[in-house]
Amino acid sequence: MVGTNGKGSTCAMLEAGLLACGLRVGRFTSPHLEAYEERVRTGGQDLDPQRTARFLDWAKVNAPDAPFFDLTLALAARTFREDGVQVAVMEAGVGGVSDATQALGRVVAVALTNVALDHTGVLGETVREIARDKARAARPGVPLLTTATGEALDEVTRVAAEIGAPLWTPESRPGLFDLPRPPALAGPHQARNAALAAATLRTLGYGAGVEAALAATHPARLERFAVSGRTVLVDGAHNPHAAGVLAQAVPRADVLLFGNLARKDTAATLTPLLAVAPVRVFTAPGETATPPGELAARYGGVADPDPHAALTRALAFTPQGGTLLVAGSLYLAGTVRAALRAGV
Fold first, then answer.
1. CA 160 remoteness from chain centre
2. Phi (first) and psi of residue 113, to 5 degrees
3. What CATH number is given for 7-23+86-214 in this structure?
4. For the chain, which terminal residue's Cβ has fewer other Cβ atoms within 10 angstroms, N or C?
5. Can you give the residue ranges of the Mur ligase C-terminal domain (predicted)?
6. Mean pLDDT of each 10-residue bin along the chain, 344 residues long
């Protein structure tokens, strides 16, 4: 599973559909929201932390200098082998051909959600460059399915031809991508993710799982909480493309709680959300966050570097019957949803 946005939602729908078909399913995704073990799932359940601890003991001796993502991928592969997984849904970390998931064998399908500007320092400065990197995750003779559009699709088409991967899109195979109903996940953008999941299931011969895929949920994707008569929407949108999609899905809220990592294009990510809410609270989802005080001074609002304190302030600003939108970082989303589930 490759793409700029929507990978996690599509993986969740694929997992649900494959499980409904009676398969032993593994799922590898990143990042996690609250617990590291969310990254590696078997049979719809997060990894047992004791297995993580045993793997870390092994890694300290055998791979002390390996990158974090590569080690987590290795943990997933080992877990899936030990647990007799029949089909594994594997999400790339960054890019496609440049990603560690290229080490995987026995790939039976490659799904590409969409392409937009993100990780430009690694993947390229233009949509075409990024699309080329992601599309090169394709394998000769292995179906490459995508819901990408525009110049990204043009580049994906070129790469698929070069590699010799059959390319299937909603335009070339409409029946494959057809949905019997909208997905349970909120937001109009989820229809394209669901279409990609449905097409992948059908390609693998598990079309019977489409209904279960459409019923799937995934945390921090326009996730709704009710707090003292207020609605809180938590979303992990963390780049300009995702923020633009979120602004279309939620055109109006009373308060915005926003935090973004400095390595992202914070200004372009925040811009689509400024018109959504007149009141803004800025916070820091981690040590490498864009300073919230700078954001408050530039865009108007209040700043609190502590996400928990910022959440309390944002809720206080939200009127009874009103809506608080939380966005800008999956790390912020994880912190906020944990606080909300604990009763703030």
1. 24
2. -75, -65
3. 3.40.1190.10
4. C
5. 221-329
6. 95 98 98 96 98 96 95 97 98 85 95 81 78 94 97 96 98 97 95 98 98 97 96 95 94 97 89 97 94 97 97 98 97 96 86
Q: Which amino acid is at 148?
A: A
The CA angle 116-199-171, to the nearest 5 degrees, is 65
Distance of alpha carbon 91 from alpha carbon 188, whole angstroms: 22
> Is the model's pTM score more than 0.90?
yes
What is the structure's pLDDT at 97?
80
Give residue 254's pLDDT: 98
User: Could you tell me if 130 and 4 are in contact, meaning their C-beta atoms sit under 8 angstroms apart?
Assistant: yes
- Residues contacting residue 53 through CB under 8 Å, at least 6 positions apart: none
Q: Quick one: tokens of 98?
A: 């440049």
Torsion of CA 248, 249, 251, 255, to 10 degrees: -130
Encoded tokens for 314 = 């944002």
Q: Which fold has domain 223-341?
A: Protein-Tyrosine Phosphatase; Chain A (3.90.190)
Residue 112 pairs in a beta bridge with 2, 146
Intra-chain end-to-end CA distance of the chain, in Å: 34
Q: Residue holding tokens 């709680």?
A: 257
**CA Rg value for the chain:** 20
CA torsion through residues 147, 253, 272, 334, sign? negative
